[in-house]
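To whoever picks this up:

The nightly regression suite flagged histidine kinase as changed. Nothing in the input moved, so I suspect the structure step. Input below, exactly as stored in the fixture:
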Amino acid sequence: MSSGPSISSNPFNTTLTEAEIRKKRSRARWRLALIFLALVGLTGLEVYLLQERSSISDNIPVLLLFNIILILLFLLIVLIVRNFVKLHNERKSRILGSRFQTKLIVAFLTLALVPSILLFFVASKLFSYSVGNWFSFQVEDSLQQSMEVAREYYSYVEKQSHFHAQQLEKQITGNQLYRQEKRVDLDQLVANKVVDYNLGALFIYDNAGQLVAARTHPDSKLNSEPEDFLSLIRASTGDERISEVRSYRGENYLSVLVPLTQKVEDGSTVWGYIVTLSEIPKSSLMKIGNIQNMFEQYKKQSLLKLPVSANYYFTFLLITLLILFSAIWLGIYLARGITIPIQQLAEGTRRVASGDLNVRIRLDTTDEIGILVTSFNQMTGELQENRKRIEQANEDLKSTNFELERRRNYIETVLENVGAGVISIDKKGLVTTFNNAAKRILGYSKNNPMGSTYKDAFPPSFHDPIRQMIRKMSRENSRLMQEQVEITLGDAPLNLLVNLNFMLDHSKKYLGLLIVFEDLTQLIKAQKVAAWQEVAQGIAHEIKNPLTPIQLNTQRLKKKYYEDKVTFSKVFDESIDIITQEVEGMKQLLNEFLRFSRMPTPSPRATPIHPLIKDVIRLYEGHEKNIRITTRFDPNLQNLFLDPDQIRRVFINLFDNALDALSAEGNIIINTWLHSDTGRVRIEFSDDGKGIQPQNREKLFLPHFTTKKRGTGLGLAIVSRIIIDHNGLIQVRDNHPRGTTFIIELPVSSSQDIPERVA
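Regenerated output under the current build:
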């Protein structure tokens, strides 16, 4: 018998070795052998001591049960005392679970104490009642009266036999039938009286023990010899009457011996004996015997009333104590079965909290506690694996952070040294990045613009352009936009090329705004100077060309005037015509430049683009060149917000350039697409003419640049100016297999803001 699981020195290694298991089994076998020997020895000693005192020594199973209870009680007391000592020491040492063990033991004791005491008292009362009934006055009086009845029955039969013998004695004595000569009469008297008195048999002996007369009842099975009653005669002394019960062939008879006396001078003398046999019914004799046996047994057991009662009371007390101590031991066993794993779990938790994740609890059980221990071991295993992964992740994170820090430093260095201004604003409107170039361009004099609002960080003139660009990006559902804006710092204008970008994370969540801008003021000034220099050179070249024939014709007029006056009039008319023609050409050239420089601001309105293109196409129907014009219009494209007169001029210029590039015949294809996601329209104007040289594409939209023998070079410059004024974009590329394609992109929105032209 075990007292429950015990705490080993190492609570995390409860698995026993083979040697420990064999040693434990050997100790258990020795204990069982000692218990068995104690049981046999104690039972044998009790049988020996009680065999002469009472019949309880014959009831071996009762003694065995009593001894088993006694031994179990002794073992339980030893175990409980041992565990209580352990529990006391654990409570003094404040070991985890000792208080819980105490509560559980008290609970089990309380649960077992009340019913056990109740059972003890109820059983005691029932036993007392039963014993009282067994040994009650009524039972004893009934047995006593039964014995009296039996005795009276015997006395009655005996008295009747004595009476019959006396009557017979009187007749024999009175008639002197004891004489030898009257033996015949004596035999006749005996024969008659056997029948009259309903005797089983009748024998008459003389004083010497010799049979004088004998007769057996005709219905009797008695077959006795006279010698059978000699013992009664020898036992009789004087005139004493003797009676005893005898059995013959399964029948019971009462034998009564009565002496026959004869009076003499000095008294009386015995001259013979009468023996009568009276039949007793077998059932009556058995009942009388049972009554006698019961009465004798009752007398014996009444002597054992107090020992038996004490024995049963003591047995009840042992059983009650056995239940109580079993409950205590069960409470201890269950408490230790719970608290020891809890102690192990607490120790394991403490070690896990201290950082030791190698701890494992080994407990051979499959109940809920075992499930809890298994879950703890799984948890520590997962924690150990997670810690390894975390440590590896930390190492990777350190390496990543180091790399990120290096890249951040590099990016900050780049941002601080880049010539473009870079500003980032979070979704709350606070500045998170403001590099040196931004400070320099915007003339920022504060020490630290970081964390301030964009209204405080930006010049007031920079607010509206940024807002307009944000509105356009929202309308066009675009993340990126580039525009050239003009702001004022103090009294000086500032031209900026601004790139605006919405910053989104991987889930498309808005993070803030990124503004990248460059100062184009000096560049635009330089470009204007260079452009006007190139225009001036072109104008000078175009003016120089007609000045040469004017000069030559003037010299010719002078020469003819002095040398040949006869033909002077003819030469004069020709020279004047040439000079007039060249002057008209110069005038036309100046008018073209004047119109280019004075191009009006667009007046946009909702205009259907496809009918406008068709109107331009009708102008070139029936042209001397065999030109095939093909259109592929997007049916989803309806109205655009534009200036129809300026856009018509764009398409006329494109048609003119295409016709100049085509030979006697060719193809012109016009395609339109509506991009709903960006809110823009794409128009492609393609021809299969001779195309444009790659080195000339960059100069194609500059004023005065032309590849024609005659022309001002302002047509495509005007086209580019109109498209830009409409917030659009124009590009040129090769058409396959040959020719040129002009690509125009225009916004669809009817609320587009047409920017003011920068001078």
